Amino acid sequence: MFGQAELGIDLGTANLLVYSKDKGIIVNEPSVVAIDQQTRKVLAVGSDAKEMIGKTPGRIVATRPMKDGVIADFDITSEMLKGLMRKAGKELGLNLRKPTVVVCVPSGATSVEKRAIEDAIKSSGAKEVHLIEEPVAAAIGADLPVEEPIANLIVDIGGGTTEVAIISYGGIVTCNSIRLAGDKLDEDIVLYIKKTYNLLIGERTAENIKMEIGYALIEHEEQKMAVRGRDLLTGLPKTIEVSSYEIQKAIKEALLTILETIRTTLETCPPELSGDIVDRGVVLSGGGALIKGMQEWISREIIIPVHLAPNPLESVAIGTGRSLHVLKALQKAKS
Ligand code: ADP
Ligand code: MG
């Protein structure tokens, strides 16, 4: 219909992206909402709200309403979606009345969790909502030929969940989803610094450490970084220096869990498809794929080539948006 917008939404634990067929990514913001606890009023959403995490005065809290890839707080998620859909409308230069939306859901989500995601999108003004499984969206966004009878293995490491799936003929052949991803690495860094240095650091600081000097389990030249926090003994601010070797040790356990999930998926791969995967390799997407040395490390461990998706942070959103035409074709075929 004329003027009817069609959007793909990646409602991630860490980042929310909106993709339009004509304009590409039109919204890319952290999944964060700042609220006044007394009045329950939403003060900011997205990057404005993320800036406030851990820095706000008592009654204002910056929260992340998505946890482990699903909705933890329905009302706040709806508010966040409303705010960001307004932004999407502005970007498109037309008012976003009743868009058709495709939204991705983690393959491990329960039907109740899927329903909540659908309802939240509807409450933000969508006319029609279609769901697509996240690994399929990630694979489409990473330009993998998902509609062909060729198996592709995709690993999406997000903030809250890691999804490992084998996709063939447009569907998931086998899949493992764990509720451990980038956020867990941040938590482990906070814990390590606290135990080793009696220093309390915030989650944003931990995330910065991970991005700057966090390495997968590969050999590398040592890097150091100054880290600020609160000394738990004196209660005073303090700066220490941490090494990339220490951080590697701190995140090792979580990285091994991710690797184990990839191994398990490969083990359950139907033999007819194993050959494809050995030939074509594994594709990494999601922000966690950007950890230094990830590609090299996984490839060495599973002895299969590993490729990085062209835009790891955007693959799911792009794939979600592009999947619209596939859905339409399916609907036409049905009616
Ligand atoms: P989600 O789909 O759950 O919203 P994303 O795919 O957007 O998650 O990835 C977010 C995660 O990726 C966060 O844990 C973030 O810290 C991590 N991340 C983003 N960029 C990098 C980077 N350059 N190095 C390491 N981790 C990163
Ligand atoms: Mg994601």
TrEMBL record:
Cite the binding residues for ATP: T13, A14, N15, G159, G160, T161, E207, N208, I209, K210, G287, G288, A289, L290
Name the major location: cytoplasm
Q: Superkingdom of this entry's organism?
A: Bacteria
What the entry lists under InterPro entries is as follows: ATPase_NBD, MreB, MreB_MamK-like
Provide the alphabetized UniProt keywords. ATP-binding, Cell shape, Cytoplasm, Nucleotide-binding
Q: Which SUPFAM superfamilies match?
A: Actin-like ATPase domain (SSF53067)
Q: Which residues form a coiled coil?
A: none
- Name of a matching Pfam family: MreB_Mbl
Compartments in which it is found: Cytoplasm
Q: Which family does it belong to?
A: Belongs to the FtsA/MreB family.
Quaternary structure, from the entry: Forms polymers.
Question: Which HAMAP family does the UniProt entry name for this protein?
Answer: MreB (MF_02207)
Job of this protein = Forms membrane-associated dynamic filaments that are essential for cell shape determination. Acts by regulating cell wall synthesis and cell elongation, and thus cell shape. A feedback loop between cell geometry and MreB localization may maintain elongated cell shape by targeting cell wall growth to regions of negative cell wall curvature.
Q: Which protein are we looking at?
A: Cell shape-determining protein MreB
Species per Swiss-Prot/TrEMBL record = Bacillus kandeliae
